[in-house]
């Protein structure tokens, strides 16, 4: 008895993707990418369960693993999130190579052991699944494995209670009122007034753009802490100066063109565009000159 | 195709997961690699069920899934608690039993 050609094609196609997903889980730098790779591998494993006649398990794999467990993982990744960047620096020297070597050795051992097993024919689930896969499983769970099943129930309840005990924090003191918080901030000399707003410029107006201090340096405090931690602060304070240079160069070119020949139609069109750009640039100008003066 | 190929795949996934546990230091990713290893075992169990023509392997895989679900709940709760006290999810920082 052998499997069908269709199953072989499915195995080789999806098997490769599953291995790639597993490698992605290990190799991806960000935890979210790892989680998504793992979800892909799990879905492919669900397809393999279905191909192996485990219809109930295939569906449970999708519902429980990719549905519940991976979402739980994503929740925690989002909770722990941004500040938990994984440093790729080795703390124990040579640990990575040793680990890869151990993995290779273990894998070779395992696969060589499997290669020595003599599996030339297999029974197949045709008979076992004849009364329906779910019915067959139910019969086994509630007869032979009923004790293990009950113990599993106890385990699940213990796990749920354990998770609640671990993550629950009892409030031991009264929550501070707004007045007390304000007084504490003054006493500690922390930032007493509200945090500065992000920069508002002629061309840029977004929360990731820091405002400028009087000396022309960007004010880090004016950008949200999350963006700062991610390194997504966009500093545009130098841009206006560059634009000013561009404008000067263009106006020089235009003046040269005027000198060489009479105003051609395209040139005059360009000129109009330039002059249209002009006001915006000149709007940036005063800010720049103010910065320059401060420096 | 011989169904033993599924066993080879399972062994490969298990090995990759094991190497991941050894290499990575982010506790969440280490945990995901453990899940990968559990899944690889499940694939082996399901394949064994097919090879032998009875459903016991599938039952064991089912129990593995339940245990894995319980493990994830407790493990992630521990990671969250740990993160609250250390502001880090790196296993290197978990070198002490107490704070």
Automatic annotation (TrEMBL), chain A:
Spans through the membrane: 12-28, 35-56, 62-85, 97-117, 137-166
Primary location class: membrane
Subcellular location: Cell membrane
Protease recorded as keyword: no
InterPro entries in alphabetical order: NADH_UbQ/plastoQ_OxRdtase_su6, Nuo/plastoQ_OxRdtase_6_NuoJ
Reactions listed under catalytic activity: a quinone + NADH + 5 H(+)(in) = a quinol + NAD(+) + 4 H(+)(out)
Annotated EC: 7.1.1.-
Low complexity composition-biased segments: 267-295
Positions of the UniProt region annotated as Disordered: 246-295
Enzyme's top EC category: translocase
Keywords for the protein's UniProt record, in alphabetical order: Cell membrane, Membrane, NAD, Oxidoreductase, Quinone, Transmembrane, Transmembrane helix
The keyword Metal-binding appears for this protein: no
GO molecular function: NADH dehydrogenase (quinone) (non-electrogenic) activity
Membrane-related topology note: Multi-pass membrane protein
A Pfam family annotated for this UniProt entry: Oxidored_q3
Similarity-based family: Belongs to the complex I subunit 6 family.
Function of the protein: NDH-1 shuttles electrons from NADH, via FMN and iron-sulfur (Fe-S) centers, to quinones in the respiratory chain. Couples the redox reaction to proton translocation (for every two electrons transferred, four hydrogen ions are translocated across the cytoplasmic membrane), and thus conserves the redox energy in a proton gradient.
Protein name, per record: NADH-quinone oxidoreductase subunit J
Species for this entry: Streptantibioticus ferralitis
Automatic annotation (TrEMBL), chain B:
Family: Belongs to the complex I subunit 4L family.
Gene: nuoK
UniProt-annotated location(s): Cell membrane; Membrane
Summary of the function given for this chain in its UniProt record: NDH-1 shuttles electrons from NADH, via FMN and iron-sulfur (Fe-S) centers, to quinones in the respiratory chain. The immediate electron acceptor for the enzyme in this species is believed to be a menaquinone. Couples the redox reaction to proton translocation (for every two electrons transferred, four hydrogen ions are translocated across the cytoplasmic membrane), and thus conserves the redox energy in a proton gradient.
Protein name, as recorded: NADH-quinone oxidoreductase subunit K
TM segment ranges: 6-23, 28-48, 60-83
Enzyme class: translocase
GO molecular function: NADH dehydrogenase (quinone) (non-electrogenic) activity
């Amino acid at each position: 008895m052998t499997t069908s050609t269709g199953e072989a094609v499915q195995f080789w196609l999806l098997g490769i993707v599953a291995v790639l997903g597993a490698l992605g889980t290990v190799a991806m730098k960000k935890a979210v990418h790892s989680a998504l790779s793992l979800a892909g591998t799990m879905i492919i494993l669900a397809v393999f369960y279905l191909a192996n006649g485990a219809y109930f398990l295939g569906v449970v794999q999708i519902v429980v693993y990719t549905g519940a467990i991976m979402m739980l993982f994503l929740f925690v990744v989002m909770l722990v999130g941004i500040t938990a960047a994984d440093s790729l620096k080795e703390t124990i020297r040579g640990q990575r190579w040793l680990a890869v070597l151990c993995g290779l050795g273990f894998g070779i051992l395992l696969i060589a052991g499997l290669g020595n097993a003599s599996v030339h024919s297999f029974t197949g689930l045709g008979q076992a699944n004849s009364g329906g896969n779910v019915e067959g499983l139910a019969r086994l769970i509630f007869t032979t494995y009923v004790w293990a099943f009950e113990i599993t129930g106890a385990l699940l309840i213990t796990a749920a209670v354990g998770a609640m005990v671990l993550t629950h924090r009892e409030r031991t003191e009264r929550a501070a009122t707004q007045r007390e918080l304000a007084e504490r901030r003054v006493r500690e000399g922390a930032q007493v007034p509200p945090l500065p707003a992000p920069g508002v410029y002629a061309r840029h107006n977004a929360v990731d753009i820091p405002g400028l201090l009087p000396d022309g340096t960007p004010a880090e405090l004016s950008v949200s802490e999350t963006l700062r931690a991610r390194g997504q602060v966009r500093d545009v304070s130098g841009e206006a100066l560059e634009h000013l240079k561009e404008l000067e160069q263009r106006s020089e070119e235009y003046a040269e063109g005027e000198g060489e020949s009479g105003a051609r139609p395209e040139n005059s069109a360009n000129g109009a565009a330039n002059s249209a750009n002009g006001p915006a640039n000149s709007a940036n100008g005063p800010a720049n000159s103010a910065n320059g003066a401060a420096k | 195709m011989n169904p033993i190929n599924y066993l080879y795949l399972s062994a490969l996934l298990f090995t990759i997961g094991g190497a991941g546990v050894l290499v990575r230091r982010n506790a969440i990713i280490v945990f995901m690699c453990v899940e990968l290893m559990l899944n690889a075992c499940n694939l082996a169990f399901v394949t064994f069920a097919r090879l032998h023509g009875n459903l016991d392997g599938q039952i064991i895989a089912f129990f593995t899934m339940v245990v894995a679900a319980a493990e994830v709940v407790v493990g992630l709760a521990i990671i969250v608690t740990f993160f609250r006290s250390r502001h880090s999810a790196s296993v290197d920082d978990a070198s002490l039993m107490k704070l």
